[in-house]
Every structure is written in C-alpha cells, then in structure tokens.
Amino acid sequence: MQNSSNLKDDSAEKERMNRVLNHLSISWSIIVLALVMYTDFALPKVVCISDYLMTFHTAGRLILENRPRDLYPPPGATSFVDAPFDRASHRIVPELQPSSTSEYMYPPLCALFFTPCSLLPPYYSIAAWQILSICALLGSAYFLVSGIKYSGMLDGVKNSPSGLAGLRAWAFLAYLPTTITIWIGQVGLILGILPLCAGYYFAMRQRPLLSGLLWSLTILKPQFMIPALVTMAVQCLNRRFKTAIGFCLGAASIAALNVILFSPSMVMDWLRCLKLSDAVYSNIKFGVASHLMISLPRAVILLFPVEQQPPVRLLVFALAGILLLVTLFALFKQSRLLADAKLLDTMSLALGAFTAPLVVPYLFLYDLCIWLIPGVLAMRVPWPNAISTRVKNVMIAAWLLSNLYTMIVICSTRLASPILFVISVIVLWVALCAPLLKLKEKTAGLVQPGQATDSAESP
Asked: Tens digits of per-residue pLDDT, 188-218?
C-alpha cells in the first residue's frame, strides 16, 4: 500500500513539474516574440541589417520589379561591394549604412519564395516572414512528434509523448540559435527544418517517395541536406532506394524549374556567385564575421592567411570526409544489427544532423537550429538500451554548448572562438559515435542482418 501511495505521489509531482515547465516555455516564447516584434517596428536601424531585409526582401523585390539579373554580380566581379544587388538593397532599405554590403547566394528559384512578403513595406515584410518561420517551427514539431507516434517505436512505452503538448514546441525558442534564426529572418526553419521533419513524418508513414521529394527541397538550403543524404545513403546500402529516387526526382524538378523560369545563363551566374562567395568568406579583409562561422572546414581555413589556404583546404576537407565516412560506417553497422528500419532511419537522420557542422563548408551560428531534430529524436525515441543514456546526455550537452557560444557572441565577439566550438563538437561527436561502433548484436537485442530492406516500405 505504501509503495502504491509513493507511486501516486511521484506521478502527481511529475504532473506538477510538467505543468510548470509548460507554463515557463509558453511565457518565454511570449517574451521572445514580443521582443522580436518590438525591434521590427521600434528599432529600424537595428533591423535593417538583418539577413532578411538585406538579402531575402531585396531578392523578392527584384523579382517583382522584373530585374532577376541583378540578383548576382556580373562576370569578373571580385567582391559584392557596389554590385547591382548591393545597390538595390540600399535603395529598397534606405536605412542601410553605406558600409553594409548585401549579397544573394541562393538559387534564383529561391527568390520566388520571398515575393509574397516583399509586396509589403520592409518592416512589415520581415514581421510576416518571422510569423511564417514560427508556423514552420510549429509544423516541424507536429511532423516530428507525429512521425514518432506513427512509427510504432513507442508501442508499449509508458508515458510516451503525444501531440505538441508532449514536445512543448514553444520550448524550442529557449534554444538560442532558433530564436536568432527567427529574429534575423533567416530561412533555415522554412527551407531546412520543415522539409526534413515533413520528410521524416512520411518516412515513418512508409511513404518513401514522398519523403524523398520533400527532402529534395533542402537543395534550396544546402547546409540542411546532410541529414537527408546520410539517411538515404544508409538506406541505399541496405537496398532501400525509393527515398533516394524521390529525392532525385525532386532535385531534377528543382533544377528544371531554375532553368525554365529563369535561364541557363542565370544559373551560371549563380554558380559564379558561389565561387566568388567562397573567395570572400575565406578572406578576413572583406570583414567576414568569422565568429559566426562554426563549421569545421571554415573555422580551420580562416585560421590561415589566404596564400596558405590551398593545402589547408585539401587537408580539412579530407578530414571532414573521413568524419562523414565514419558516421556512415557506424550507421551501416547498426543496420546489420537492427531489425527495425524505422529506428535505423531515425538514428541516421539524428546523427546526420548532428554531424552537419563537421562536414558542411559553410554553417553559420543560426544554422545550428538543425540540432533541433537530433535533440527531439534523442529525447523522445526509445534508442537501444546500451546507448540511450549516452545519446540523451550528448544532445543536452550540445544544446547547452550552442546556447553558451551564442551568449558569448552576443556579449563579445572578441571572446568567441569558432575553433574551440568546433573542437567541442568533435568531442561530442566521438562520444556519440563511439558506442555505436562498439555496439554488439547481443546488446542491440535485435535480429539478423539484412532485414532493413525495401520490404519495410510501401510506395
């Protein structure tokens, strides 16, 4: 009787704690959203240098003005300063200081996404985009939780989460890279996180072709392709090709739309722009915000003068490739042990997203919102017992590390060290991958190799 009473007391205490956390997350989200909207209209000199107004609003306006050619610098340009896009940005957002330089490095098709909001005056436009980003965040939360629910992985698990309440989607705003993404009007939530989560949902519903089509949208925000590519690579290694086929169909459609709606020459202009951006973002003399570049390749390259960078590039990209191959090998090894293809896909998406800062050439601080996905999957999915605690602890440490580095950047950019951040991420990556490489069949508790095949999928 006493044990029963203690269990009831523990359950009541957990329920009270859940209510408190839910209220705190909602209160925090209200404060954040109020501050974001306040700065949009009360501090135009601050908001005018946001990524959205300098880049995306300007791109949308140029499409509306039928001037798509001005999206990219002319052939032979050596910087973005005073390029047609930079001049257009200063004209469309007159509060921009002369020292601010605007550039657009996304595919021409992306500019069409911004035209509806660009019909509005600049500061109403960014507010509308921020609202859309919040909707994308809530949609991503829904797709993640629903995907886990429909996967069947929670069958028999007590107190399993359900719906948005179980996830506390508003608590995502306590993860500072997400808040910054919304505040500056970046596209990571809409063109990155939402397609990844929607694709995961349909993968769990055994709709691999649709999953691949949705993941192909990440081509518009290439930094977010890594989780999808890692997951599809592991699937293909296990003779499951339908998701990859869907991705290829989507990618081909996006490429065709870029050529048809614009022109082959504009696509070439975009590719030249990417080459120019690589030169600009490798040279601190152009005023590069190096404290925001937290990917392994870029953090290492920026430690060296431009003339010493070519051999360094080869070495650092080779290292990034090795880390990616080790990640794939760890996941492939799990595919030999796990009978549940959906759990394998979940592990692949989570580990792929976590590995992104170590392999993507360009990843900025706000792009760490990609860690929302492994964070949720680590906490909500029943991982194999041998690694479950390790996975949760690593993701908690990763979120805390991201928030700490973001606060350092906000307080003093001189104290921010991207290379120390990257080293910390490598340590966490080793802590995450090591048990996967050591995990044996008897501890995985699951059956014969080769069972995670297309038989687990349906069209």
From this structure: 999 999 999 999 999 999 999 999 999 999 9
CA triplet 96, 102, 107: central angle to 5 degrees? 140
CB 320 within 8 A of CB 295: no
428 exposure class (CB count in 10 Å sphere: 0-12, 13-18, 19+): middle
Radius of gyration of the CA atoms of the chain, in A: 23
The Cα–Cα gap between 390 and 396 comes to 10
Cβ within 8 Å of residue 299, ≥6 positions away: 293, 418, 419, 421, 422
**CA-CA distance, 301 to 333, in Å (whole number)?**
32
Q: Which two tokens stand for residue 376?
A: 């949720």
CB 299 within 8 A of CB 293: yes
Region 364-368: mean pLDDT is 94
- Calculate ∠ Cα 31-405-125, nearest 5°: 45
Alpha carbon dihedral 407, 411, 413, 417, in 10-degree steps, equals -40
The encoded tokens of residue 148 equal: 């886990």
Degrees, nearest 5: CA angle 99-291-190 = 85
Contact 210, 242 (CB under 8 A): no
d(CA 397, CA 416): 18
Residue 117's alpha-carbon distances to 37, 55, 134, 169, in angstroms, are: 16, 13, 15, 25
In angstroms, rounded to a whole number, what is the distance separating the alpha carbons of residues 354 and 372?
A: 9
Closest CA to 391 of 378, 376, 374, 377: 378
On whether the CB atoms of residues 356 and 392 are closer than 8 A, the answer is no
Q: Report the C-alpha gap between 270 and 251 in whole angstroms.
A: 17
Domain positions in the chain are 1-31, 43-119, 120-456
104: which DSSP letter?
-
452 token code pair:
């995670």
For tokens 């020459």, the residue is: 265
Both tokens of residue 82?
Answer: 């005073």
156 backbone φψ class: left, alpha, beta (φ>0; ψ -120 to 50):
left
Query: In b/e form, how buried is each residue of 167-195, taking b as 16+ CB within 10 angstroms?
Result: bbbbbbbbbbbbbbbbbbbbbbbbbbbbb
Q: Compute the average pLDDT of residues 249-271.
A: 94
State residue 315's pLDDT score. 95
Gap between the Cα atoms of 67 and 86, Å rounded: 13
Predicted TM-score (pTM) of this structure: 0.89
Residue 441: how many CA atoms within 13 Å on its side-chain side? 6
The Cα 407–Cα 184 span in angstroms is 16
6's tokens: 């203690």
For the four alpha carbons of 174, 114, 229 and 214, in that order, the dihedral sign comes to positive
pLDDT band at residue 14 using 50, 70 and 90 as cut-offs = low
